[in-house]
Amino acid sequence: MDSKSNYKYIIAISGFILMATTFSIVNSVSTILVAPVINARNFTISEYSLLFTINAITMAIFSPLIGALLSKINIKIIMAVSSIFAGVGYIMYGFANNIFAFYAIGIIVSIGVCGLTTIPISTMISDWFDSNKKASVMGIVFAGIGTGTFFWMQLVSKILEKASYKWVYLLLGFIILIISLPISLFIAKRPSYAYKNTLEDNDSIQNKSINFKEISKTPGFWSFTIGLFLMGISFAGIKQHVQSYLSILGYSLSFNANIGSLIAVVGLSGNIVGGIVFDKFKTKYVLGSLGIISITSIILLFLANQPFFAYLFTIFYGMTMFVSSVWPAFGVSRIFPNENYSVIFGVANMFITIGASIGPFLSGIIADTYYGYPAAWTIYLILTIIYYILFIKTVK
After folding, report:
1. Whole-angstrom Cα distance, residue 173 to residue 153?
2. The pTM is what?
3. 243: closest CA among 261, 266, 267, 270?
4. Domain membership of residue 355 as a residue range
5. Final residue of a structural domain among 186, 208, 230
6. What is the pLDDT of residue 29?
7. In the chain, which residue ranges form alpha helices assigned H by DSSP?
C-alpha cells in the first residue's frame, strides 16, 4: 500500500480532470448547442434529439466490452484510443452538414467517452483506493462533472454570442484531445495485480450465474431495475431538453448558460453530499424526501416562463441530480447480497442506460407536436412518482 499511497491521488486528480473536461463537455455542455444547431441546420427537435438516443445506446452496447477489455489490454492503450475518438469526433461535429453525419459522429464520440471516462476511472479508483475510501473519492472525482459544466457553459455561451456553433465544436474537441491524451498515455495505469484479480472475478461471476437467476426472479429485483429504467427515461428526457425548452420560452443564451451553470453548482454539492446522506439516514426516508423534491422540480418546469420559477426549478432539480449516479450503485449493495454485486450492478446499469437512451428522443418527438414540452413534463412527472414508489417499495 505504501508504494501506491501517493500515486493514487494523482489518479484521482486525473479522473476529476477527465470528468470536468471530456465527460462534462460531451454529456452536459452539448445541451446548450441544441438550439443553435437546429436553427442553423433546420433540423427538427426530434431529429436532433435522436442523436442523444444513439449516443446512449452506443454507450450501453460498448460498456460491457470496455469492461472486458480492461482486464486484458493495458488501460493506457484503451484510454488513448478513446481520447482520439472523443476529441477528433467532437471536432468532426463542426464539419457535419446533415443529421446523418451527426448520428455517425455521435457513435464515434460515444465510444470514446465510454472508453475514457466513467468505466476506466471507476476501475482505477477501485484498484488504487481502500474499500472504506472508494465512495468518498468517487464522489469527489465525479463532482468534476458539475465543476466542468459550470465553466464550459459560461465559455460556450460567450462564444455563441459572437461566433458559429462550429467554432465551439472545434475548440472543445481540441481541448478534449490535448488534455485527455497526455493523461491517458502518461498517468493512467492499473496496479500489476489488477489484471489477475479481474480475471479471477470474472470466473467467480460465471460460477455464481445460478444465484443471479434466482435473484432476478424476485419482485425486489424487478421493482428496482424497472424503477431505474423509468428514472433513466425521465432524468435524461428532462436534462437534455432544458436548454431547448428555455430557448422556446424566449430566454437568451446567456440566461440559459446561467441556468446550466447553476444546475451544475447545485449538482456538484449534491454529488458530494449525496453518498453521505444515504449512509447516515434510513434509505426509504431519503428516497421519500428526494421524491418530493424531484416532483416539485418538474412542477416548477410548467411555471418556468417566469425567471423566478426557472431558477427555483434549477435548485430543486440540481439537488436530485446525484440520484441517477449514486442510487444505482448504492441500491444494489443495499438491496441484494454482496457476492452478486458485480452481476446485478451490470444489469442495473444497462436498465438505466437504456432508459436514458429513450428519454431525449421521446422529449423531442413530443416537443414537435401541438402539445409541446408541457406534455413531456407531464409524462415525466407521472414516471417520477412511479419510480420513487418502486424504489421505496423495494427497500422496505
Report:
1. 15
2. 0.73
3. 261
4. 218-396
5. 208
6. 78
7. 7-18, 24-27, 34-41, 45-69, 75-93, 99-116, 118-128, 134-142, 144-162, 165-186, 192-207, 209-216, 219-239, 242-248, 253-280, 283-301, 307-320, 323-335, 341-367, 372-395
The answer as to whether 260 is a domain residue is yes
Q: Enumerate residues 6+ apart whose C-beta is below 8 A from 281.
A: none
Close Cβ partners of 241 (under 8 Å, ≥ 6 residues apart): 31, 34, 45, 49, 360, 363, 364, 367, 373, 376
Residues 355 and 334 in one domain: yes
Choose among 235, 25, 233: nearest CA to 109.
25
Same domain membership, residue 315 and residue 333? yes
Q: Is residue 213 part of a domain?
A: no
Angle CA(61)–CA(67)–CA(69) in degrees, nearest 5?
Answer: 105
Q: What is the pLDDT of residue 317?
A: 93
The CATH number of residue 379's host domain is 1.20.1250.20
Statement to judge: residues 348 and 301 lie in one domain: yes
Whether residues 131 and 267 fall in one domain: no
Phi-psi region of 338 (alpha: psi -120 to 50; beta: other; left: phi over 0): alpha
Q: What angle do CA 365, 102, 161 make, to 5 degrees?
A: 85
Cell numbers at 380, concatenated = 415525466
**Per-block mean pLDDT, blocks of 10 residues, the chain (396 long):** 70 94 86 86 85 85 78 89 96 93 95 89 79 70 82 86 90 96 92 60 47 66 92 91 88 82 82 75 89 96 93 92 78 67 64 86 88 94 96 86
What is the Cα–Cα distance from 326 to 321, expressed in whole angstroms?
9
Neighbours of 148 (CB within 10 A): 25
All three cell numbers of 324, joined, read 441517477
d(CA 367, CA 248): 10
- What is the reported pLDDT for 337? 65
Question: Quick one: pLDDT at residue 86?
Answer: 96
Q: What's the pLDDT score for residue 112?
A: 95
Q: Which phi and psi (to 5°) does residue 73 adopt? A: -120, 145
Q: Do 252 and 164 have their domain in common?
A: no
Per-residue pLDDT reduced to its tens digit, 183-241: 999 999 888 766 555 555 555 444 444 355 666 676 688 899 999 999 999 998 998 88
Residue 91: inside a domain, yes or no? yes
